[in-house]
Design goal:
Mean pLDDT: 76
Radius of gyration: 52 Å
Oligomer: single chain
Structural class: alpha+beta
Strand order of the largest sheet: 4-5-6-7
Number of strands: 12
Distance between the termini: 160 Å
Shape: flat
Number of helices: 12
Order of helices and strands: HHEHEEHHHEEHEEHEEEEHEHHH
């Protein structure tokens, strides 16, 4: 063995430069081929760095990766940024140290927080409202089921000339995480959070929607009940439209009860295809399929068909087949259909009473009705003090004297006039002193 090595060394030493180069190629080419084959069959695994990046945020991340000498590639499917799996966490930490990635809301927040001089009151109000919307969206995104949230506030300007200020309203758009759902309590929590953060905003004026535009939470039971009743009536009409031409409108009745899904369900299935390479099993393809079952889907239908005559077995079977096809029942879903025959009950014959002649019919005595006179209402006596009766008598006496003098038209002397004035002044003073007693006396005169 040492002799062979010495002979090879002598051969290389005596060889020309060109021959030395060829010998080097003979050694390096197999090594390069082996390395290329290894890289071909063992490509580096790339992982997604960040998802849901905007174009502006993605450009900032790529520029920073180039400065940090971190390899990356763009996915051909959706354009996401991918880095080698071994450098994934290091790349995220180094990007976070530089404050990346920044969302559009964060960039706008930095612009809004920048000092501004000479801004109008309207611009300051818009700036305050936008900042409030961003803070509310961040608080809502803190919920475990919410992946992204946007808040839109409608804050009308308060005017001192309006007695009742227009109410404030809000709309919250949420995007949930895969497989997550928002319960009614969570929707109420979001509404309470927004309403408590905005002046003059009531919880009922906050609407929560998903990216498909479906209202979450509010008026759920009422809407579901209305949808169920509409579906049941439509199915009953379909069955009657098929059975009525054959049996008649008054000989068949259909009752349908439907059960609907009260919430949206999602099912995610992940499949990985494995391929054996050089005796080793490696995953090459991963497929993720999400099946969404929307809210309000029919879960089960139960129907009853009642025939109002004595139907035979063939008629019952035929009616069941027609109704099942019209209703679109599915046995795999657990739908049921029952057909019953209830013949109409014949009316009972009325027993005839024996005829009675006018001579045999006894006269019916008519009772005498005595007229009843209405009860007399006797006024209750009213007790008055003696001085009140004396005052009333004096007034009556004065009125009588005045009437008698006017009737006689006799000349009135000065003494009579003075006496009359004195009595009149006394009566006037009495009335002014206690007008209630005088009013009671006049009422008593009017009753009598």
């Amino acid at each position: 063995m040492p002799g062979r090595l010495s002979s090879v060394r002598d051969l290389i030493a005596e060889a020309s430069p060109w021959r030395r180069f060829m010998l080097a190629l003979l050694v390096l080419l197999p090594l390069a081929a082996l390395a290329a084959a290894y890289l071909w069959f063992n490509p580096p695994v790339y992982r997604v760095l960040y998802t849901q990046l905007s174009d502006r945020a993605g450009g900032e991340v790529i520029a920073t990766l180039e400065q940090l000498d971190i390899p990356y590639r763009l996915s051909a499917a959706d354009g996401t940024i991918e880095v080698p799996a071994g450098q994934l966490h290091a790349a995220r930490y180094r990007l976070a140290a530089r404050g990346l990635p920044k969302s559009d809301a964060d960039a706008q927040d930095e612009v809004d927080r920048a000092p501004r001089f000479g801004a109008s009151s309207l611009q300051e109000q818009q700036r305050y409202q936008h900042t409030l919307e961003i803070d509310l969206a961040r608080s809502i995104q803190a919920l475990e089921a919410v992946e992204l949230a946007r808040v839109h506030l409608a804050l009308p300007k308060v005017s001192p000339f309006l007695r009742d200020a227009p109410p404030a309203t809000a709309a919250v758009l949420v995007r949930l995480r895969p497989g997550a759902q928002l319960s009614v309590e969570q929707v109420t929590t979001i509404q309470t959070l927004v309403a408590a953060s905005v002046p003059r905003l009531k919880r009922g004026e906050v609407q929560v929607l998903d990216p498909r535009g479906i209202l979450l939470g509010g008026a759920g039971p009422e809407v579901a009940q209305s949808q169920r009743l509409t579906l049941e009536q439509d199915l009953a009409r379909r069955a009657l439209a098929v059975l009525t031409p054959w049996l008649g409108a008054d000989r068949v009745s259909v009752q349908v009860t439907a059960t609907l899904e009260d919430s949206e369900t999602r099912q995610t299935v992940e499949r990985v295809r494995n391929v054996v390479v050089a005796g080793q099993t490696r995953p090459l393809e991963k497929t993720v399929r999400t099946t969404r079952v929307p809210e309000g889907r029919i879960q089960c239908v139960n129907a009853i068909v009642i025939l109002g005559f004595d139907a035979s077995a063939d008629e019952l079977k035929r009616a069941g087949q027609l109704a099942r096809q019209a209703l679109g029942l599915q046995s795999a879903r657990g739908d049921t259909l029952n057909v019953y025959a209830l013949p109409a009950v014949a009316p009972k014959p009325q027993t005839e009473l024996p005829a009675v002649t006018p001579q045999e019919q006894a006269p019916i005595p008519i009772p005498q009705v005595q007229p009843v006179s209405p009860p007399l209402r006797v006024p209750r006596p009213v007790a008055f003090p003696p001085w009140a009766l004396a005052t009333a008598a004096a007034i009556l006496l004065l009125l009588g004297v005045v009437g008698w003098l006017r009737a006689r038209r006799a000349p009135i002397t000065e003494a009579h006039v003075e006496d009359f004035d004195a009595e009149l002044d006394a009566a006037r003073n009495q009335v002014l002193a206690d007008p209630r007693v005088t009013a009671d006396v006049i009422k008593l005169w009017m009753r009598t």
